TrEMBL record, chain A:
Binding site for GTP: 24-31, 72, 130-133
Organism of derivation: Patella caerulea
An annotated Gene Ontology molecular function: GTPase activity
InterPro entries xrefs: Arl6, P-loop_NTPase, Small_GTP-bd, Small_GTPase_ARF, Small_GTPase_ARF/SAR
Keyword set, alphabetical order: Cell membrane, Cell projection, Cilium biogenesis/degradation, Cytoplasm, Cytoskeleton, GTP-binding, Lipoprotein, Magnesium, Membrane, Metal-binding, Myristate, Nucleotide-binding
Family per similarity comment: Belongs to the small GTPase superfamily. Arf family.
Membrane topology of the entry: Peripheral membrane protein
GO terms for cellular component: axoneme; ciliary membrane
Binding site for Mg(2+): 31, 50
Protein name stated in the entry: ADP-ribosylation factor-like protein 6
Entries under PANTHER family matching the protein: ADP RIBOSYLATION FACTOR-RELATED
Any one Gene Ontology BP term: cell projection organization
Compartment list: Cell projection, Cilium membrane; Cytoplasm, Cytoskeleton, Cilium axoneme; Cytoplasm, Cytoskeleton, Cilium basal body
From TrEMBL, chain B:
Stretches assigned to the Bardet-Biedl syndrome 1 N-terminal domain: 5-257
Domain Bardet-Biedl syndrome 1 protein GAE: 468-571
Coiled-coil regions listed in the entry: none
Pfam families xref list: BBS1, GAE_BBS1
Highest taxon in the source lineage: Eukaryota
Protein name as catalogued: Bardet-Biedl syndrome 1
Length: 189, 575
């Protein structure tokens, strides 16, 4: 770290950095959400299914995020666990209109929570009940009961309904995550 | 054992009446979201519907006029976007739907009509004969075993008062004899791609199989079978080479190849009626009414049979390509689905109700989805877990796998063949000789035993008044040995006294330091040890037996005898 960086941090000009992991089933809207959070000039126009993973950066008022946008396709899901160790927070995206695969999302979440790199850490988990605009979409409350989120007791979590196409609900969620990660970082000091 | 399946959807009151043949999964809108297409038999006589489920919602419904017997999806053109068509077999017709709209109706070619029947109706049309004459003539034809049209059959069923009206209503329409479709499947035409154009393969009630061209809807090939086809399994390409495996109502399975006009050449005769047939790679799995699952090679050789706990309701192949998993799902009437990988039961799925319709494939966006419909009308969807592993080992207790491994057996030699031949020819004589020798052996044994008892030659006393047990052991390597004689009174309460232990040996070979031991009173249960040293007098490595006698004073016959075979002595050190 250069002298300038140190000075900048000391002065509070440079933001703190946080790594977040973005996971969820395929076609749930992870890449679209991140695309919506990015500054306008770097937004992509068309979103294609992610292969492997992408790294995206975006910032809120107080934190600068490095997001690992993992592919949700079945054959890439085993990559997720390799990034659990370094992350400060998890964003779990659920397609709230896909009732059939809610159990699959729940199964993947259970596997995430049982993983040794996650199990004993108080990582904040933000859930996006995405595609709230769809006709068949279930509410965020229904979604959290289907995913049995109330059973998560040792980690802070938050669910918000979102629409990644318009950006509705995204900022509320990211603000919550920012607060949580800041708390965590402050406590460590 | 945690379940390998996730419960994705569960509707016990979906009021579906359908079977495996009437279920299919297809991407009918080419949007990557696969739909479930169900031909619902309604009440069994009316209210038949074609239902399309998108995710868990019923997306559309279309009425079907007659009972559906099969539903398949296939690509009939090369247009973009690639939307498959749905073919519903019902009566003598195949209804083709595209983009959820009726598109085409194909009618199977009519069958030839009996000449006399044709003429009779012609006469009736011109009122040359009255209805009773017509009826008697038709009745005569039927009892001759002629196949009549539906109109004549219906006519024969009527009361005599209704005959006139029926004849007047129908006699002006041309007479037709049609067949009914019994089974339906698809066969890729010239390319093996996932979205290549497919032909329809149709089995009918008049013992024929038709292969239809998907673009022009003409019959490409007709094959006549010895019986009525019930289940069809197709693989290959129409233009290259294909195999149809057809199981028929006469309990036989026929294999048809490209170019064959009749299927009696390769035939598997089952000993029970088939209730389901599937093919995985080169093996044919048949579920039979006698509660067995049988497996045959494509050549018709029986590989194995498994007895199932109850009767089979339906069967379906599970082909899960991301994991290269190919297994057989067998639904049973005890609310279970058994999953077989080869002959090994790898999983049992419990269901709510007897499953009558099974389909595995991509549904929605999930590859490993199992759709089940039950006899009670329920619709259940399960999804294969990503972490599920199916081990190729019997979930039930049974013979170990090694038992089924093939042993490398060497070729039969001439000697073996001759020997087998001899054994086969002289089986009776050989058996008799063996039996005779066995009896002689038994007799000899019995004689020796009696002799031993008479002479008290055995180390356990048979005398009920003196129950004793003797054991003796030799220690040392020579030339001096130590002999320990253990005596035990095995009676429960009676002590024994006045016992003497003595030895019988060759005095040229051995010298006992204590030839005569007087035993004290023996308390029941305790073990008494008596010792003596023996010197070996021979240096040439000769050994002999030594006998131990336990005697009672006043009796000449020993109570028990022990025989000790002495070890070869080490040479005496040259002094």
């Amino acid at each position: 770290m250069g002298l300038f960086d140190m000075l900048a941090r000391w002065l509070g000009v440079k933001k703190k950095e946080a790594n977040v992991l973005v996971v969820g089933l395929d076609n749930s809207g992870k890449t679209t959400i991140l695309n919506q959070l990015k500054p306008d000039d770097t937004k992509a126009h068309d979103i294609v299914p992610t292969v492997g993973f992408n790294v995206e950066k975006f910032a809120t008022k107080s934190l600068s995020f490095t997001a690992f946008d993992m592919s949700g396709q079945g054959r890439y899901r085993n990559l997720w666990e390799h990034y659990y160790r370094e992350c400060h927070g998890v964003i779990f995206v659920v397609d709230s209109s896909d009732k059939l695969r809610m159990v699959v999302a729940k199964d993947e979440l259970d596997q995430l929570l049982q993983h040794p790199d996650v199990k004993n850490r108080r990582i904040p988990i933000l859930f996006f009940a995405n595609k709230m605009d769809m006709r068949e979409a279930v509410s965020s409350v229904k979604c959290s009961s289907l995913m049995e989120l109330e059973l998560i007791r040792d980690k802070p979590w938050h669910i918000c309904a979102s629409n990644a196409m318009t950006g509705e609900g995204l900022h509320e969620g990211v603000e919550w995550l920012t607060d949580q990660i800041k708390d965590l970082v402050d406590k460590k000091k | 054992m945690t379940s390998k399946w996730l419960d994705a959807y569960h509707d016990p009151v979906a009021s579906l009446y359908t079977f495996t043949q009437c279920l299919t999964l297809a991407d009918i809108q080419a949007d990557g979201d696969w739909k479930l297409i169900i031909a619902d038999l309604g009440t069994g006589s009316y209210d038949m519907k074609l239902k399309v489920y998108k995710n868990t919602n019923l997306m559309s419904e279309h009425a079907i006029i007659d009972l559906p017997t099969g539903v398949v999806n296939f690509y009939m053109d090369t247009l973009e976007p690639r939307t498959p068509a749905i073919a519903v077999a019902s009566g003598p017709y195949i209804y083709i739907y595209k983009n959820l709209r009726p598109y085409f109706k194909f009618t199977l070619p009519p069958l030839s009509i009996n000449q006399i029947e044709q003429e009779l109706w012609e006469q009736a049309k011109h009122d040359n004969i009255n209805v009773f004459v017509l009826r008697d003539a038709l009745e005569g034809l039927r009892s001759d075993g002629q196949l009549l049209t539906v109109r004549s059959l219906k006519f024969l069923q009527l009361e005599s008062t209704d005959l006139e009206a029926f004849a007047n209503l129908h006699k002006h329409a041309p007479l037709k004899r049609q067949t009914v479709i019994t089974c339906l499947d698809t066969l890729k035409k010239s390319l093996a791609d996932e979205d290549a154009i497919s032909c329809l393969v149709v089995g009918t009630e008049n013992k024929s199989i038709y292969i239809l061209d998907p673009e022009a809807f003409t019959v490409l090939t007709t094959v006549d079978l010895p019986s009525i086809p019930v289940f069809i399994s197709v693989n290959g390409l129409y233009d290259v080479e294909y195999r149809l495996v057809v199981s028929c109502r006469n309990g036989c399975i026929y294999t048809l190849k490209r170019g064959s006009k009749e299927g009696s050449k390769y035939c598997i005769e089952l000993n029970s009626q088939p209730v389901g047939m599937e093919r995985i790679n080169k093996t044919i799995y048949v579920g039979c009414m006698d509660e067995t699952l049988q497996c045959y090679s494509s050549k018709g050789k029986k590989l194995w049979t498994i007895k199932l706990p109850t009767s089979i309701t339906t069967m379906k192949t599970l082909d899960y390509s991301p994991r290269q998993l190919k297994t057989l799902l067998v639904a049973l009437s005890n609310n279970e689905i058994h999953m077989y990988k080869d002959k090994y039961l790898v999983d049992v799925i419990k269901t709510e109700g007897v499953v009558t319709g099974l389909q595995f494939g991509r549904f929605g966006r999930e590859d490993g989805t199992l759709v089940m419909t039950t006899r009670g009308g329920g619709l259940f969807v399960k999804i294969l877990k990503r972490s599920a592993k199916f081990e190729e080992k019997d979930a039930l207790a049974g013979p170990p796998i090694s038992q089924n491994q093939k042993i490398n057996i060497p070729k039969k030699t001439k000697l073996f063949v001759d020997q087998t031949l001899r054994e086969r020819q002289n089986a009776v004589a050989m058996h008799r000789t063996f039996q005779r020798d066995l009896y002689l052996l038994r007799l000899n044994t019995a004689r020796q035993y009696v002799k031993a008892l008479d002479n008290s030659m055995n180390p356990i006393s048979s005398d009920p008044t003196e129950p004793l047990k003797l054991s003796a052991q030799i220690q040392g390597i020579g030339p001096t040995f130590k002999l320990t004689v253990n005596l035990q009174n095995t009676s429960l309460s009676q002590p024994t006294s006045n016992l003497i232990i003595t030895f019988n040996y060759d005095d040229k070979l051995y010298s006992f330091r204590n030839k005569f031991i007087e035993a004290p009173m023996l308390v029941p249960g305790l073990n008494y040890a008596f010792e003596t040293f023996i010197d070996c007098l021979n240096e040439k490595g000769v050994s002999d037996n030594v006998k131990v006698y336990v005697l009672k004073s006043g009796r000449s016959v020993p109570i028990i005898t022990g025989v000790i075979s002495m070890p070869v002595s080490e040479a005496v050190a040259v002094a």
